[in-house]
Amino acid sequence: MSASPLALKVADVSARYGRAVSALDRAALEIPEGAVVAVLGNNGAGKTTLLRVMSGTHRLHGGEITGGQVFVGETPIGGLNPRKIVAHGVIQVPEGRRIFSRLTVEENLRVGGIRTRDRRSAAEARARVFDLFPILADRRHQRAGLMSGGEQQMLAIGRALMASPRVLLLDEPSLGLAPLVVEQIAHVITEINRQGTSVLLVEQNAEVALGVATHAYVLELGRVVLSGPASELRNSPAIRQLYLGDGAPLGDEVADGPRPVLAPWDFTAAARTRSRKAS
Ligand SMILES: Nc1ncnc2c1ncn2[C@@H]1O[C@H](COP(=O)(O)OP(=O)(O)O)[C@@H](O)[C@H]1O
Ligand SMILES: [Mg+2]
């Protein structure tokens, strides 16, 4: 019996910046096909680096993979450049949006679809984006830099969708946005996923992430210290501590004591539980 097929897998990846800074320490993570997986963790935990090694952009930031491998489906992509990884359907929405503020909304979207050769799929992708974000259709001729933070985040996600990703990587999309806008973004992520795109959602806002995700991982100092179904993590005392943002970091609790009960998470068992529930 085989586990659910994986859209993306990070197999014990270690990464560093220069000689001194270790950012990932044998990090392991799986994104089942069609899932929304959340990665939680404090500032500096390695969340962004994890996304960079998936999208191949770590080198642009002076990073280096020192061990492990990343797979899209069965294909190893660990050493590939970002363009090749994009061609495999892995698209990252970077931290801080990074839209082209002098270009219009429409021009930003066109940049996102630039590698889509056939015009029909480009048109379809654009229709999907305007359908998800009507505000972008309304504002299509406006300069992106003049839009609100929330609208810019929507544009950044829309631009990524123009490449029709198989896996969408989102780096803290809720950062700095008002609660109502955060809710809209969460809703859109759910909808994007419902339409068939697997999603990896990096968040410091655990409440948002666990509300949207099916499975979640907690990163600390480059290590996965906890993982499991989002519904279970939501009830774990350690996560509640993270919610409140006080108390000792999870690692202190996890490193010396017994391994966390929730990890390693068994996807096969989870799939069995799901099908049992369904029947
Ligand atoms: N471009 C970089 N050069 C050097 N060190 C970096 C760089 N980017 C991140 N780091 C370091 O790597 C570690 C992990 O950072 P990061 O992946 O950005 O964490 P997070 O996204 O969880 O805040 C931190 O110690 C951070 O200071
Ligand atoms: Mg980050």
Note down, in words, how this protein is organized.
The structure is a single chain. The chain is of the alpha/beta class and 279 residues long. It folds into two domains: 6-89 and 165-278, Rossmann fold (3-Layer(aba) Sandwich); 94-164, no CATH class. 39% of the residues lie in helices and 25% in strands. The chain is built from twelve helices and ten strands. It has helices spanning 47-55, 82-87, 105-112, 119-132, 134-138, 149-161, 179-194, 206-212, 230-234, 237-244, 250-256, 267-278; strands at 6-17, 21-32, 36-40, 63-72, 75-76, 90-93, 167-171, 198-203, 215-220, 223-229. A six-stranded mixed beta sheet has the order 6-7-8-3-9-10, with helices on both faces. It has a four-stranded antiparallel beta sheet with strand order 2-1-4-5, covered by helices on one side. Strand 1 (6-17) and strand 2 (21-32) form a beta hairpin. Helix 3 runs parallel beside helix 6 (149-161). The protein is globular. The two termini are 19 Å apart. 42% of the residues are buried. The model is unreliable at 251-279 (pLDDT under 50). It binds adenosine-5'-diphosphate and magnesium ion (MG). Residues 17, 21, 23, 41, 43-49, 61-62 line the site of adenosine-5'-diphosphate.
